[in-house]
Amino acid sequence: MSVPDAAGGDEMKQAKEIEDAEKFNFMATVTKAPKKQIQFADDMQEFTKFPTKSGRRSLSRSISQSSTDSYSSAASYTDSSDDEEGTPREKHQTNSKGSSNFCVKNIKQAEFGRREIEIAEQDMSALISLRKRAQGEKPLAGAKIVGCTHITAQTAVLIETLCALGAQCRWSACNIYSTQNEVAAALAEAGVAVFSWKGESEDDFWWCIDRCVNMDGWQPNMILDDGGDLTHWVYKKYPNVFKKIRGIVEESVTGVHRLYQLSKAGKLCVPAMNVNDSVTKQKFDNLYCCRESILDGLKRTTDVMFGGKQVVVCGYGEVGKGCCAALKALGAIVYITEIDPICALQACMDGFRVVKLNEVIRQMDVVITCTGNKNVVTREHLDRMKNSCIVCNMGHSNTEIDVTSLRTPELTWERVRSQVDHIIWPDGKRVVLLAEGRLLNLSCSTVPTFVLSITATTQALALIELYNAPEGRYKQDVYLLPKKMDEYVASLHLPSFDAHLTELTDDQAKYMGLNKNGPFKPNYYR
Length: 526
What we know:
The relative contact order is 0.12. This protein has two domains: 89-277 and 469-503, Adenosylhomocysteinase-like (Rossmann fold, 3-Layer(aba) Sandwich), CATH 3.40.50.1480; 285-444, Rossmann fold (3-Layer(aba) Sandwich). It contains 18 helices and 16 strands. It has helices at 6-32, 110-122, 125-134, 153-164, 181-189, 202-213, 229-237, 239-243, 253-264, 279-302, 318-329, 341-349, 357-360, 379-384, 440-444, 449-468, 483-493, 506-512; strands at residues 46-47, 144-149, 168-173, 193-195, 222-225, 247-250, 272-274, 310-314, 333-337, 353-354, 366-369, 389-393, 412-417, 420-424, 430-434, 478-480. The termini are far apart. Helices cover 39% and strands 13% of the residues. GO terms for molecular function: adenosylhomocysteinase activity. Residues 1-20, 49-100 are annotated as: Disordered. It comes from Alligator sinensis. Substrate binds at residues 152, 226, 251, 281, 285.
């Protein structure tokens, strides 16, 4: 082994000293640099607990005044017009054809919204396939459809499909937070009479529905609803119009419940199709859509890490199953509350503890409702929650969390970001409330396009079936979609996965007592 000479050692030592000196000088320069204090434009301000505009809003949909001016960047990406003063109701807008038969946030966003719709079409091939197959026959020619659903790129594809099949459509939103403003603008530019924008007030919400229904020289003969608000409005305010409706298609558990109530009371004078309980809605939209979108909504609003968090999910139906599967996969400790022993048993066998909410509420980090019921989370539960507990709803209705009970003088509301409120108790405890108790995924994030294609195709077929059904096939009652149609919807989506069905032989079909072409399940199968 060679030993370095003394001269070489001195040169290396000198170089090391120079290097150390340079590092010291650099660090000294950094530490002497003046520190800049970050200044926020506005401090957090306390939000008004009750609406101050004339005309008190109903408690069922009451929202803080400031909430109507906010929007989720997830659901509406380029809503720069949101800062403009005034409501769209006060603005006169026309599309490129000179029509003003719409009310949206900003018609100038139409080009961007059209791109959003085109992107959605790429993953809704089955609905586009139905459009191409049936547009020559125009099975909805003469149909005048009034709709009240979420207005997103995916529902825009459905609306434009209905128009391509011959229908005239007028549309409003079923949720004051879920409208994608640029998509509403694109629909208006295409000639659809759409009345919706993100952040509507209570009064705006009902005004938009009324504008869809009440138009001189135009009377709806079909209803497509999500939540039952449109059906309720027509039934109460326009009874003569309601009697002439040929069919109602409803896709939410809340709306279906309302329809069954009307039917039981003998007040449902038109046939209605319960899409919510169709297999292609329950087992796909409710399950797979929520499995993916629950995490998206929670992450975008709270940046929460789920590993080790204690979460209680109220309800273990298809929505609850989807939510629990996603949360469990990320390491959350999940508890379930249930009223149905069958669903409770399923939860137990899936590895979840079934509890009463009162038993665990103090330890929970996240509380999620997905029952479709009312007052699932009460003020008593909210008072007992730990500091920083996150509370949100994945059911359609905004009644599951008793938000109204939080609008009291002793509690302070603080808006920390879009759709995120901190409710502050006198002792300093904060509860994080998302979307003011409304549907989390569509209010605070987006939902998977493909699974919505399944639901949209089911809705389109239900409308076609009710509109073209011979007199007497459907009476004044609530019906499930025939299984043959459920299976047809599923078959339209299989090519996306390059899936190939096995066909029964004649002998096998005879043995099972089935038609070779289906349906393969009885009508009561869910």
